Amino acid sequence: MTLEFALLVAVGFFAQLVDGALGMAFGLIATTAMLSLGLPPAQASAATHTAEVFTTGISGLSHLYFRNIDPRLFVTLSLAGVVGGVLGAYFLSNIDGEAIRPFIAAYLLVLGLFILGKAFRRSPTTEDARTTHAAPLGLVGGFLDAAGGGGWGPMVTSTLIGSGHAPRRVIGSVNAAEFFVTVAVSTTFFIELGASHLSHIAALIIGGVLAAPFGGYVVRHLRPHVLMGIVGLLVSSLALIQLIRALA
User: How many independent structural domains does the chain possess?
Assistant: First the structure.
C-alpha cells in the first residue's frame, strides 16, 4: 500500500464520518484531496462520486434504521437531484468547471454564517416544515454538486435547515437521496470520460465504507441546535477555504 493510497483511505474515512453525521462535505473534502494530487476537476469529481455510490448507500441505510428520513422530502430530493446531477456531470465533462467555484463558495459562506446565527438564536425547527422548494433545490444542488465536485450536502442540507426543518430529518433524508444522485452522476461521468483513476476510487471507497455506519448513530444523539451550530461552522470554514483557493 502506497502512502498516497493510505492517505486517501484516511480522507475517505474522515469525509464520510463528517458527511454521515452532518449531511454534507464528503464531496468537498474528497475532491479537494483529489485536486491537490493533480487530477483535473472532471476526473476528481468522477472519482469522488463513484466512491460516494458505496458510502451514501450504507449511510442511507444507517439513517433509515435510526428513522431519520422524511419520506416525502427524500423522494422529492432524489428525483430532482438525479436530473440536476446528470446535467452537471455532462456540463463538467465538456466545460471547465473551475469558473463557477467562486460563486458556489460565496453562496455557501453566506449560508453557513446564516445557519450559525440561527443556532445561536435558537430559532425553532419543526418536523413538518414545508417542502415546496425541495424540488428546485434538489435540481440546483445536484447540478452544482456534479459540476463543482461537491456541494450537494452543504447546499441542500444548509438551505433546508435554514428554512426551519428539523436537522435530524434533513440530514437523514439528504444523505439517503444522495445515493441516487451519485449513481446518476457517476454513470454520466463514465459515459463521458470512461473508467480512470481506479486506485483513487478504491481508496475513497475503503475509507468511506468503514465510516459510513456511524453517521446515523451520531446524528441521532446530538441536540438539534448543537448540530446546527456544527453545520454552520463546517459550511463556513469549507466555503471560505474554497473561496480563497478559487480567487488565489
Answer: 1
Q: What DSSP letter does each residue of 47-83 carry, written as one string?
A: HHHHHHHHHHHHHHHHHHHTT---HHHHHHHHHHHHH
pTM of this prediction? 0.76
pLDDT in tens, 88-130: 999 888 877 677 668 767 877 887 787 787 677 655 555 555 5
Q: What is the pLDDT of residue 126?
A: 54
Can you give the residue range of the structural domain that contains 80? Answer: 3-247
| DSSP per-residue letters across 203-221 | HHHHHHHHHGGGHHHHHHT
- Distance of alpha carbon 147 from alpha carbon 48, whole angstroms: 12
Instruction: Evaluate whether 18 touches 234 at the Cβ level (below 8 Å).
Output: yes
Burial of 208 (0-12, 13-18, 19+ CB in 10 A): buried
Cβ–Cβ < 8 Å for 205, 55? yes
pLDDT of residue 79: 96
